[in-house]
């Protein structure tokens, strides 16, 4: 046992505070696997935790960071042994269980996934929760039976983490991808990932009609609120939309019209407590289906000690693509 470096969120009379400091390994929470964290990443939820903008953190002190890759150091779990490379996303890590922005983590082995063959730990965190969620959305579209020859697919929040990976996955699968973004100058970036069209998010972010012109057969939405309502209103008959985010808000100001007049389906995506079989399938498919060269173009790297300044940036929509946090 010893100490290691970690970002720690505390709560006092003046509110939430964040510090990069030494943390005692003896103070880690219960778990049957101890992991030397080598990489993490930055997600929208991490921004909320780092800044205290939303009550994501529900235990103090808390080490934020909702996903990591690393090497098993100690294990009482039958599936893992020292030296195994593993990945973790979700399960309340960084919210109710001490998280990933640290050099050590102790978690339940049932939360882990073996590092998929074909991915490095760094690539796994370039994917991270955002990319893993994008794959769950794609799997939901597949399970519903919608196909590229049914029409275009729209991706909202396309310049963000979920959106960037979704654009790359859908384009490689043969879809005509319409990428919605409000960031000036991102057209070349998104077309490089495979987007066929760029749509200004202003067309979707303001209140619209209950039903609009049928424009796409499917959608992946990471924005929520009015944007999702407009995506639904413009989805073709028997189309489907997978919803996984709330960057614009948690509300959904829509009507039953798209559902009962066009047979549109809205599929909710929960990446936090996904059962192990689907979780492992998603990671296997990511290793197989994601163009790793395109993943590299959407990825930037920072050191662990730099994480604290990035929370406000991701909440303000100033982070493009994926950020890998180099922990080791």
TrEMBL record:
SUPFAM superfamilies: GroES-like, NAD(P)-binding Rossmann-fold domains. Gene3D superfamilies: Medium-chain alcohol dehydrogenases, catalytic domain, NAD(P)-binding Rossmann-like Domain. It comes from the Bacteria. InterPro entries: Acrylyl-CoA_reductase_AcuI, ADH-like_C, ADH-like_N, ER, GroES-like_sf, NAD(P)-bd_dom_sf, Zn-ADH-like_protein. Residues 15-325 form the Enoyl reductase (ER) domain. GO terms for molecular function: acryloyl-CoA reductase (NADPH) activity. Coiled coil: none annotated. NCBIfam families: oxido_YhdH. This is Acrylyl-CoA reductase (NADPH).
